[in-house]
Design a protein that fits this description.
single chain; three-stranded antiparallel β-sheet; 48% strand; elongated
Length: 88
Amino acid sequence: MGWVEDLIWNFIIPQGTIDARFSLDVGIKKTVQGGKGELFLNATDLLNTMVIRKTITGNNFGYTSTDYYETQFILIRCVITLSQGEKA
């Protein structure tokens, strides 16, 4: 099966402003099993601040929106290195 290539053109016509946004992300890593494994814990947007506020002004109208994106998540990941020929 080959690769599929796509070319997508997005044209954005600016009609307003988007306020600044930020997020607070944290992550920790712990080595386990004598250095053969690692545990990772990552959390994103802890303060739920990834809110996009838009103000659009046009001819004879104005529009302001507040969009809450689902950006908060917690990821727990375990990576273990297995080597062949080793006896427990």
